[in-house]
Amino acid sequence: MTNRYSYTYCVLRYVHDTTSNEFVNVGVVLYAPEAKYLSALCRTTYGRLNRVFPGVNAEHFKSLMRYIQARLEEQGERVASELPLKAPSTVLEFAQAILPRDDSSLQWSPAGSGRTDDPSGTLERLFDCMVLRYEERQALAVRSDEDVWRNFKRNLEERQVLKHFQPKKISVQDGTRDPNCEGG
Questions:
Q1: Residue 45 neighbours by CB under 8 Å, 6+ apart
Q2: Which of 13, 55, 98, 130 allows an S-S link to 71, with CB 3.0 to 4.6 Å?
Q3: Could you read off the pLDDT of 77-121 as tens digits, one per residue?
Q4: Residue 149: how many other CB atoms lie within 10 Å
Q5: Number of Cβ within a 10 Å radius of residue 91
Q6: Coil vs helix vs strand at 159
Q7: Of residues 61, 32, 31, the one with CA closest to residue 44
Q8: Which residues contact residue 149 at a Cβ distance below 8 angstroms, ignoring those fewer than 6 apart?
């Protein structure tokens, strides 16, 4: 039977204007004390945030997100390896030890909770649901063989070594044809 652990989580919000309280979720921290698990995932891009609130200082934001995530991961390593003596007991206590409650643009949400047999997977799912949900995902560009070759060809021509390359036909002895190779 699989162990199921209780967990709590909270969402890190970027509140651009504390008067209007409009926000964009930028991170999630999850704490499962029975599993000795604490970790966080924070946004490392600022595109959506900048589209909602133009003028965000991108480098400062990304640096701050890396800092918060790293400090929470350090706390998580302590949770996993040390006895729970005088340690924070709630997810908000861990979160606010790294980023205290104040009137700045980064605010922690109230805690949510649940049960899971995979705290790490649950953190990833919460991050996808709470932070990346409305992210515009760009389609991967598909390049043809000719597109790829064009870059190599240009570089080889500049070095004047392209003339040493010759087409090669590959065939196998038993007569079967590898579908990934031309010829046969």
A1: 62
A2: 98
A3: 988 888 766 667 899 999 999 999 888 889 999 999 999 999 999
A4: 12
A5: 25
A6: coil
A7: 61
A8: none
Residues 37-46 as b or e (16 or more Cβ within 10 Å = b): bbbbbbbeeb
Write down the pLDDT at residue 174. Answer: 61
Distance CA 5, CA 51 (A): 38
The Cα-based distances of 78 to 28, 56, 95, 127 in angstroms read: 19, 33, 14, 22
Q: Which residues have C-beta within 8 Å of that of residue 17, sequence separation ≥ 6?
A: none
Residue-range domain boundaries for the chain? 5-130
Residue 125 burial (C-beta neighbours within 10 Å; 0-12, 13-18, 19+): middle
By DSSP bridging, strand 5-17 and strand 37-42 are unpaired
pTM: 0.70
Rg (CA), the chain: 25
Amino acid at 66: R
